[in-house]
Amino acid sequence: MTKIRLDEFLLQKGFAPNIQVAQSLIMQGKVHNKHEQLTKAGTQVNINDTDIKVKLPKHNYVSRGALKLIKALDHFKINPSGMVCIDLGSSTGGFTEVLLEQGAELVFAVDVGYGELHHRLRDNPQIIVLEKTNARYLTEKQITIQPDLIVCDASFISLTTILPASFALAKKDCLLIALIKPQFEVEKHEVEEGGIIKNPLLHQKVCSKIKAWLEEEHNFEIFGIVESPILGAKGNKEFLIVGQRKKTL
């Protein structure tokens, strides 16, 4: 039975984006198991313990993914009001909900899955639901209005594979907000045990690769790259890349 420090446990399980936040949560008394509050970062816990919980501030969005997009919009001061948007990998609709909340005119919610979009969004006339739809092959028959903004939170696929079809359909000066997920961008031999990418050099390598691809092959001006406020699956770090395509090609 493998045991690790409590702060490391919170990091690995996605409760905290870094060790400092993990330790802060412990010190604030927000970490507990069935029996007691856990107040020491060095406490040894079972790596597979399912009873350890963290009392985080509640949000009312359909998914915690909404917090990722909010971070990007706030950090880079992007206002989607009045925009037509594509949400690639829409899933339950966290990104879509935020876009509409902040004034987007219309969202094409694209996902290869079926039945995932939350029921409170499904009948919204400002959402065009494109389920069972592979974003790599989007056409004008599906995306009937040129989008101003493309957002993407997709898994098991590289951004270099999923984005080009949307670029071809979007306005020349479209904006982009996308999640870089290193575990889906590195070479197979670079993926660490358990599918977690911990090496910061690999994070940097992947972010630089995607930035260069957008700049050199798709004529984007990159505003910046910031770390996602929450961890992805299995505790992987994710990064938000934000930019705008230049009008002249």
TrEMBL record:
SUPFAM superfamilies: Alpha-L RNA-binding motif (SSF55174), S-adenosyl-L-methionine-dependent methyltransferases (SSF53335). Residues 4-70 form the RNA-binding S4 domain. One of its GO terms (biological process) is methylation. The keyword RNA-binding applies. InterPro entries: Hemolysin_A/TlyA, RNA_MeTrfase_FtsJ_dom, S4_RNA-bd, S4_RNA-bd_sf, SAM-dependent_MTases_sf, TlyA. It comes from the Bacteria. Keywords: RNA-binding. One of its GO terms (molecular function) is RNA binding. PROSITE patterns: S4. Coiled coil: none annotated. Pfam families: FtsJ, S4. Belongs to the TlyA family. PANTHER family: BACTERIAL HEMOLYSIN-LIKE PROTEIN. This is Hemolysin TlyA family protein. It comes from Rickettsia bellii str. RML Mogi. The lineage of its organism: Bacteria, Pseudomonadati, Pseudomonadota, Alphaproteobacteria, Rickettsiales.
